[in-house]
Design a protein that fits this description.
By secondary structure, the chain is mainly alpha-helical. The protein has 13 helices and 4 strands. The strands form 2 sheets. The protein has a two-stranded antiparallel ribbon. Helix 2 crosses helix 9.
Length: 302
């Protein structure tokens, strides 16, 4: 498929992703070197408190911010392509809110404390995200087909309902059980262990690769359902697959960072300006742009 900058070749794909990867590496290095404590990268070789600040405070937050930005950027690009709507993103559609409600409810019910070795919060977040998507698609059917513009309005209303339910749960559950969830609900990049970050990163990388492999089908879907069907794309099956994977990406990061908005909305448009509309490049480019953006925004103050 021909994009705004000509046909996508293997060389152009590799070159664009290499440049964005280099930009991400520079962002992470600069982020690790900047902080109000005055600790710089040279302190890593001298050890002491400054090295501890970099390795245990700055680096984990930077890595988690990059992973979160990558997941939300790729998910936003897919939602915008599938729904053919430039305003679609996990937050506005209510997918982030559904994931947040699932994770919040599981924690409030004491499941995460009762089963600490199982990924209860992540599983509940994914269930909330998938159920939200199924709800949106069911209510957005017009004449047997899914209409994208009503879905945005439904998503906004759904987010409001989710917030009301979360506030209602807060009134019923003792505050000690909800310790730390208030900040999580605002959306932030917390200090997590490298094991947790690695787990989220694996899910994110696998999900982004899966979405990028559907790039050709996403190109055809973004051109219209009739055009996609005429060229042999199983519209319902493909849409269900990519939406499920995008929901999984959203849920994986929301379970750790809480619902972070705007990344899934803005970043895909920036990536589209840089790389063109071809989803074979746009999806990984949006992921890398999201990682750069949130890593830069989440640079530690320590």
């Amino acid at each position: 498929m021909t994009g705004a900058r000509g046909p996508l070749t293997a060389g152009r794909l590799a070159g664009a992703l290499a440049l964005l990867t280099l930009a991400l590496a520079v962002t992470l290095i600069l982020g690790a070197a900047i902080g109000s404590s005055g600790a710089g990268l040279g302190d890593l070789f001298r050890g002491g408190e400054a090295a501890t600040t970099i390795l245990r405070l700055r680096v984990p937050r930077l890595l988690l911010a990059a992973v979160t930005g990558a997941a939300l950027g790729a998910a936003g690009a897919v939602f915008q392509g599938v729904l053919r709507n430039p305003l679609a993103d996990p937050y506005i559609l209510g997918v982030s809110g559904g994931a947040a409600l699932g994770a919040f409810a599981a924690t409030a019910a004491g499941l995460t404390a009762a089963l600490p070795l199982l990924p209860i919060r992540a599983t509940a977040a994914f269930a909330g995200a998938v159920l939200t998507v199924a709800f949106l698609f069911a209510l957005s059917r017009v004449g047997g087909r899914v209409a994208s513009y009503p879905m945005l309005l439904i998503g906004v209303v759904t987010n409001t309902v989710y917030l009301a339910v979360i506030l209602f749960i807060q009134t019923l559950v003792e505050l000690t059980r909800l310790h730390g969830l208030r900040i999580w609900m605002i959306g932030s990049v917390p200090l997590e262990s490298f094991g947790t970050i690695a787990g989220v990163a694996v899910v994110t990388v696998v999900g982004i690769v899966a979405l990028a492999l559907h790039g050709r089908d996403l190109n055809l879907l973004s051109a219209g359902e009739e055009a996609a069907r005429s060229l042999g794309v199983g519209v319902a099956r493909t849409r269900a697959r990519v939406v499920a994977v995008a929901s999984l990406l959203t849920a994986a990061v929301v379970a750790v960072t809480g619902p972070i908005g705007f990344v899934g909305l803005i970043v895909p448009h920036v990536a589209r300006l840089l790389s063109g509309p071809d989803h074979r490049l746009l999806v990984p480019a949006a992921a890398l742009c999201g990682a750069i953006f949130l890593a830069a925004a989440g640079t530690s103050r320590r």
